[in-house]
Design brief:
Helix 1 packs antiparallel against helix 2. The strands form 2 sheets. The protein has a 4-stranded mixed beta sheet with strand order 2-1-3-4, covered by helices on one side. A two-stranded antiparallel ribbon has the order 5-6. Helix content is 28%, strand content 21%. By secondary structure, it is an alpha/beta fold. It has a single domain, classed as Macrophage Migration Inhibitory Factor.
Length: 125
């Protein structure tokens, strides 16, 4: 997962944002609690041109995940991330979540394609 932010937040604040997004992933699409692989990208305000109405609190969350989750699970994820970040003072209008779902055959897991691996959890949620 990539978390894109405007530069300037403390290490602690970035950690809380990451943890809240992770909690929403666990609750909504049922990833394992230990499945934690977050990258935080920070942009100087001069290098990130945001749409009108967006603020310096804008967060773009990009999740690359195994395919198979239902539309309802994705809806729960979008709402969960937005609600959790809202509790941190980030307006819903400053939250965007984008999902990418490459086919399992395009994932290399333990040296084999993902569609041949035991991923250890259910995707049909």
């Amino acid at each position: 997962m990539k978390i894109n932010l405007v530069k300037g937040l403390s290490r602690e604040r970035k950690a809380v944002i990451s943890e809240e997004i992770h909690a929403a992933l666990v609750e909504s699409i049922k990833i394992p609690q230990a499945d934690f692989n977050h990258r935080i990208y920070e942009f100087d305000p001069a290098d990130w041109h945001l749409s009108a109405g967006k603020t310096e609190k804008f967060v773009l969350v990009e999740v690359t995940m195994f395919p198979g989750r239902s539309r309802e699970a994705k809806r729960r994820l979008f709402k969960g991330v937005t609600d959790r970040l809202g509790a941190l003072g980030i307006a819903a209008s400053d939250v965007m979540v984008v999902l990418e779902e490459p086919p399992l055959v395009n994932w290399g897991l333990g040296g084999v394609p993902g569609d041949e691996a035991d991923i250890g959890f259910e995707l049909k949620v």
